[in-house]
Write a structure and sequence with these properties.
Blueprint lengths: L4 E11 L4 E11 L2 E6 L2 E8 L6 E10 L1 E6 L7 E8 L2 E2 L5 H4 L4 H4 L1 E3 L8 E8 L8 E3 L8 E3 L7 H17 L3 E4 L9 H12 L8 E3 L14 H5 L7 E4 L5 E5 L12 H13 L5 E5 L5 H6 L10 H12 L4 E6 L6 E2 L10 E4 L9 E8 L2 E8 L3 H10 L8 H4 L3 H4 E5 L19
Parallel strand pairs: 10-13, 13-14, 16-17, 17-18, 18-20
Antiparallel strand pairs: 1-2, 2-3, 2-6, 4-5, 4-7, 7-8, 7-9, 10-21, 11-12, 15-16, 19-20, 21-22, 22-23
The structure holds fe (ii) ion (2 copies).
């Protein structure tokens, strides 16, 4: 007899102007309660302008555990009704955010994004927390099942996830400039830093194709050795890059000796001079640690795991004084979250991005227009990546995912902003933005 199963973890993961990505997983159930054990089943999705008009738009009999369906050809700014099922079992949400009374997963409806006004300019990819060299994901508490290793038959996950992400950025997103927000390695050893550099070199040239900042896992220098500094960028050194459109990307090193963070006075001087030299230039900032009090207080690690309060405020003030800084991307918390600034009158979005290496395991694309930008989170979706995603979902006894996924709005949103100083026409407009 077949193992009883449930279709759970329903997520409206990515919503663009013309497409949607909906996912769920099938797993064993005992007396109506889902267990971590995977059960392969078929994949069906219905979609339409009303619940009654929803038609089957995807029907795949191939048994699988991680069900992810991308539907294209939708219209921007329009509501769609959907339902999903595997072998006749309806897929349902299972997290606090996805079960919320107005969440798309709970109500079975979503609205496609409306692109910002103006012309398409370019696309930037934001990613962080690859943790190259790590072998368990989650909080390691002795023998307790709080962290998850890779399956014994498979190569270790950090390299799989990092490589698959960069291949996906090349193959389906047109090789956007890639900003790496720290924790690129797990312990900052020479071997890990060299491996990470070898992998990212396959994506392209530093400062032309990608930029990286240090995370607390990449470790500040110890004694005379600083492998991360040798392979990527020196300790407490600000870095910057430009794209052909004129967009500036600034990287800040927020690390010190522990999990928390600080910015040293010399780096602050460089940041201030750089921003003040050209304050109106459209700029994205990347640092490992989030820079809002809201991020610190809502993180399970607490404020001591985050950037010092006075440095958070100083960075926010410097960014407020430079009208071109429109987005500050951070990692470290491994979650999707739009932060709340502390300073009055801010014009910068403070955005925490989920990890490359663990659930929901992906990257954000920021599509710039002359009148604003559109941000989408994408899950890295090769078979091996999805297999690891299923496993890493169970880290910290399956509880961490409650914090990491964020809402559909955290992962997909549009912000109006005058970016007309940038030069359009340097890049082909992505398929999902062609309306
Ligand atoms: Fe991390
Ligand atoms: Fe970190």
């Amino acid at each position: 007899m077949r193992t009883p199963f449930l279709a759970t973890d329903l997520e409206v993961l990515t919503v663009t102007p013309t497409s949607v990505v909906i996912s769920w997983i099938t797993r064993a159930a005992r007396r109506g309660t889902a267990l971590p054990h995977p059960v392969p089943a078929s994949t069906q999705l219905w979609l339409g302008p009303t619940r009654l008009d929803a038609r089957i738009v995807h029907d795949d009999p191939m048994p699988r555990v991680f069900h992810q369906v991308e539907i294209k050809g939708l219209e921007p700014g329009r509501e769609y009704h959907f339902r999903a099922a595997s072998d006749g079992i309806a897929a349902v949400p299972s997290l606090r955010v996805t079960k919320g009374p107005s969440s798309p997963e709970h109500v079975g409806r979503f609205v496609t994004l409306t692109p910002p006004p103006g012309r398409y300019i370019t696309t930037i990819a934001l990613a962080n927390d690859m943790h190259i060299g790590e072998d368990r994901q989650g909080i390691v508490l002795g023998p307790l099942p709080t962290s998850i290793p890779q399956a014994k038959t498979l190569p270790n996950y950090p390299e799989i996830m990092f490589t698959a992400m960069m291949r996906e950025l090349d193959a389906r997103h047109g090789h956007p400039f890639l900003a790496l927000g720290g924790d690129i390695t797990n312990r900052g050893t020479e071997e890990q830093a060299a491996t990470a550099r070898r992998l990212v070199d396959q994506y392209g040239v530093q400062s032309t194709d990608w930029l990286a900042v240090r995370g607390n896992h990449d470790r500040p220098p110890r004694g005379d050795t600083d492998p991360f500094g040798e392979h990527f960028v020196g300790f407490q050194q600000m870095v910057q890059a430009s794209t052909p459109s004129g967009l500036r990307i600034v990287g800040i090193d927020t690390t010190h000796g522990s999990g928390g963070g600080s910015v040293l006075p010399e780096q602050f001087e460089t940041i201030e001079a750089t921003l003040q030299d050209d304050p109106d230039r459209p700029t994205i900032v990347t640092s490992h640690h989030p820079v809002t009090r809201d991020a610190s207080l809502s993180s399970p690690g607490g404020p001591q795991f985050m950037l010092r309060r006075q440095d958070q405020i100083r960075l926010q003030r410097l960014e407020r004084a430079a009208s071109g800084v429109f987005l500050h991307h951070t990692g470290h918390t491994h979650r999707m979250r739009r932060g709340k600034p502390d300073v009055q009158g801010p014009h910068t979005e403070y955005f925490e991005n989920a990890a490359c290496a663990s659930y929901p395991a992906g990257y954000a694309l920021v599509h710039l227009y002359t009148g604003g930008y559109l941000l989408n989170f994408w899950r890295t979706s090769t078979k091996q990546a999805l297999d690891w995603d299923f496993r890493s979902r169970w880290q910290t006894l399956g509880l961490a995912v409650q914090l990491m996924l964020g809402t559909t709005n955290d992962r997909n949103h549009v912000v109006l902003k005058d970016l007309s100083g940038l030069e359009p026409g340097q890049r082909e407009i992505p398929e999902e933005l062609r309306v």
